[in-house]
Design brief:
Layout (H helix, E strand, L loop, with lengths): L22 E5 L12 H11 L3 E5 L18 H8 L4 E5 L4 H13 L3 E5 L9 H21 E6 L2 H9 L7 E3 L16 H5 L5 E6 L8 H10 L7 E6 L5 H11 L5 E3 L8 H6 L3 E4 L10 H7 L4 E4 L2 H4 L8 E4 L4 H12 L2 H19 L1 H23 L10
Parallel strand pairs: 1-2, 1-3, 3-4, 4-5, 5-6, 7-8, 7-10, 8-9, 10-11, 11-12
Length: 397
């Protein structure tokens, strides 16, 4: 069963072709940048620069978002603001954020199309400040942003559903996943972490927070009933969190402590090697608060994935093609999935090769940036066609 992101590709209407370099403003909220666009905004800016566009970031600390050079004597971005930059396109993160409101105002003032990027994370919705602030944001500027925005780019199906709940029509939402650096994450890398912690044999890897909603109790039970009974497999937890004590107690009760390694949260530069040296990545999340950001990284490393059948995860893993998908929290299903993956080395090899191919074809930042470029060009063309006098409007082909 396959529901890839490419099935949700946006099919823009045909408008006059815009081929010139664009001036693109990227607007983020400084207090939520880490959670919403933390990696996406800088990487996208860098690739758009490589495509020849002029890019400015607004709302982020200096140096966070790559930007085009400015001529000597040009006023700083802080002085001129988004509208003063005179953008052709405005991109803003989080559809109802203050950043989106400011971007909408600048887009209207500049007569530029507004594209919103929605990450889909639900962690902020559990925060009391966000729960209180959301109704105010909806009342104060929700309708204004919806009337202004040309398109919402959702990073996964959860983000799409969130945009729908915020009142955006399906016709204005397109799913486009986050990109991955294929030079940084690639097969064949060695891992100093594995050597330093004396991890031996095949590695079932978990990367992320050690919390209850991550489904780690189910993963431990499945490991104990399958490869945890063998000497050639190790379960590696790369992360930290409040559930570690109770999980250690569970491991002690099951008598598999010698097959478990707790290596803490890896540094960014250590993660590619750790994934490349592993055999399987497990993402046993119980709800869609887990975005699955490590799945594309694993795919780029040629690492097969076993993931919960949650919307934010299952759209990335092609069952029996780049890994396996199992119902969230279903211990019997996870036991069977781990047994299937661990006893089929040829299938694992095939899954890893196909995962890398999929990452190269669909998840490379160069590919993602060109998709964004297409969306921006189409939005600009549509805006210009709309602004033409009636007698000058182009005829449909």
């Amino acid at each position: 069963m396959r529901k890839p992101w490419r099935s949700h590709r946006y099919a823009p209407k045909r408008f006059p072709v815009v081929t010139s370099s664009l001036r693109i403003a990227i607007v983020v909220h400084p207090f939520t940048l880490r959670r919403k666009g933390g990696e996406h905004a800088p990487e996208l800016a860098r690739e758009l620069l490589n495509l020849g566009h002029t890019v400015r970031g607004f709302g982020a600390p200096p140096g966070v978002i790559p930007r085009s050079g400015a001529a000597e004597g040009t006023p700083t971005d802080e002085l001129v603001g988004v509208a003063g930059f005179e953008p052709d396109v405005v991109l803003a993160y989080d559809v109802l954020s203050p950043a989106a409101w400011l971007a909408a105002r600048a887009a209207r003032k500049s007569s530029a199309p507004l594209l919103l990027v929605e990450t889909g994370t639900r962690s902020d919705e559990r925060d009391w400040r966000s729960r209180i602030g959301l109704p105010f944001a909806e009342a104060l500027w929700g309708p204004y942003i919806r009337r202004t925005a040309s398109l919402v780019v959702a990073l996964d199906p959860v983000a799409r559903e969130r945009a729908r709940r915020r009142g955006f029509a399906d016709a204005r939402i397109v799913i486009l996943p986050s990109g991955i650096d294929l030079n940084e994450f690639r097969p064949g890398l060695a891992s100093g972490l594995v050597l330093r912690h004396h991890v031996r044999g095949r590695i079932l890897l978990y990367v992320g927070q050690i919390t209850r909603e991550r489904g780690l109790s189910v993963l431990i039970d499945a490991f104990a009933q399958t490869v945890g009974q063998r000497s050639d497999w190790t379960l590696v937890f790369a992360g930290d969190g409040p559930a570690q004590r109770e999980l250690r107690a569970q491991i002690d009760r099951l008598g598999i402590g010698s097959h478990i390694h707790w290596i803490g949260r890896p540094r960014d530069e250590e993660l590619p090697g750790l994934m490349s040296a592993s055999t399987l990545l497990a993402v046993p999340a119980l709800d869609d608060s887990v975005r699955g950001q490590h799945i594309p990284r694993a795919m780029a490393c040629g690492l097969p994935v076993i993931a919960s059948q949650m919307p934010a995860l299952a759209h990335l893993v092609q069952h029996e093609r780049t890994g396996l998908v199992a119902p969230a929290g279903d211990r019997a299903a996870w036991v069977e999935a781990l047994r299937r993956a661990s006893t089929a080395p040829d299938a694992r090899k095939r899954w890893g090769l196909l995962a890398r191919e999929e990452a190269e074809r669909e998840l490379a930042w160069t590919h993602i940036a060109r998709r964004f470029e297409d969306l921006c060009l189409s939005a600009v063309a549509a805006r210009r066609a709309h602004d033409l006098p009636a007698h000058a409007a182009p005829r449909s082909p």
